[in-house]
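From the thread on structure requests for the teaching lab: each student submitted one protein with a one-line request. Submission from student K.M.:

"Model Small secreted protein from Mycena pura, tokens only."
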Amino acid sequence: MARFALLALLAPTLAAVAAPISNRAFSFALQSYAQFQISGGVGGNAAAQANAVFVDPFPADLTTVDATSLDNLGTMREAAESAETDEFDPQIDAASGAAADALQVGKIKNKVLKLTGEVQQIKIKIAQAAAAGASTAALEASLEAEQTKLTTNIALDVKNAGKASTGVA
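Reply posted by the TA:
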């Protein structure tokens, strides 16, 4: 009986301490491309790997993502985009045979990563705009276009399942 009385006394205090924790803004740390790239290994699982980087760490309530986290997400997505154009493309052009094929598989995985970051960034902006009562029409159109590209590249990656994949980081 004494345990229940103690619990009854502590419950309001515990609830008061727990409430601010759930209302805190989410924070997403900036990483270098080498820390988060997914292009090595084999093809076929890029969607899950990209989600582990750009989707899974985020809370279900995207309105809690702070501005710095949104900027970090954008910077990381841009790093993946730069890897595609500045690293993958020239290396693929310079390679041949199996090396070129493995780089191409890695490039597709990188595209899935880049586009997953882009889609997540747009989803956060939509959630925050909607919460602020702002129009989301332009963002929704952008989301649809990027989601289409992502779906296409995921399908290409799935076709590469089990094939060697080379990264550039």
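TA comment: Strands lie at 41-42, 164-165. Residues 1-22 have pLDDT under 50 and may be disordered.
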